[in-house]
Amino acid sequence: MAYPRRPYEKVTVGQENQRPNNPSPFSSGLHRIDSFEDIKWFHGELDRTAAESLLLQTNIIESTYLLRKSPRHDGYSVSVKCQGKVIKHFVLSYDNRIHEYKFGNASFGSLQDLLGHFESCPILTKENDVPVTLIHPYCKGEEPETYDTVDGHAEAGRGTFEVKERQSTAVASKGGYLTKRGGVVKSWKKRWFKSERNTLSYYENSETEKPIRKLDLTEAIDVGEDRIDDKDCFKLRFPQRTFYLVAESPSDTKEWIDHFKWKMDYYKDQET
């Protein structure tokens, strides 16, 4: 099944930080880095799901990131673990005409300049969203081993056993503020929403640890643009209730709708 393409974050490259005093992952011994393949935290061709699987491990801390070749477009992506276990993806491109690397709204004339920018722990900002800081590169060789799921077990000669291939799970995640219409009292309140695996949770704000409510996205029926109470919004429909949500901008609305459509298609496909 061909999944709808999930959108990338649109960012502004802001200020730089001072990297902690530890061994630098931005060099390869005495050798000059002339290609992405020489970068320790470049993981080759890796799709979003695989990148998110790596970064969502419990031992991976916030602000950890990796560079990957995207199988969906002719370019590269930077995937980073953000606040609230949300993974965001940013496009990194190379313009062959002018020989420049483009990351956010910043341009770099050489790979060395680009790596120098990453070494300074850049802060990525997006209007009305929590800033993202790139601090900890996720280097190659840190990937966990892949294990099989054992569905049957017996000692040799005393029974039979069967091992099935481990099934991949969509772990695409997204987070951000949405203004939600109340179910009983029809007032509008701004909440922090986080979509992770098959769960959509919303919180009082981005600092709150305990969610107000959790929703199972496998039960979602429909999503699309709508208008209610003189507000342009989008609706996310479940059997028991329809949620009306207002994003920060039309582009954010499209990103959320695309995200939920992808989730719904994915879980519907798992049932067949």
From TrEMBL:
Full protein name: Dual adapter for phosphotyrosine and 3-phosphotyrosine and 3-phosphoinositide
Matching InterPro entries: PH-like_dom_sf, PH_domain, PI-Interact_SigTrans_Reg, SH2, SH2_dom_sf
Pfam family membership, one: SH2
Ranges for domain PH: 171-265
SMART domains cross-referenced by the UniProt entry: PH (SM00233), SH2 (SM00252)
Manganese in keyword set: no
Superkingdom, taxonomy of origin: Eukaryota
Region (Disordered): 1-28
Keyword Glycoprotein: no
Polar residues compositional bias, start-end: 14-27
SH2 domain: residues covered: 41-138
Keywords: SH2 domain
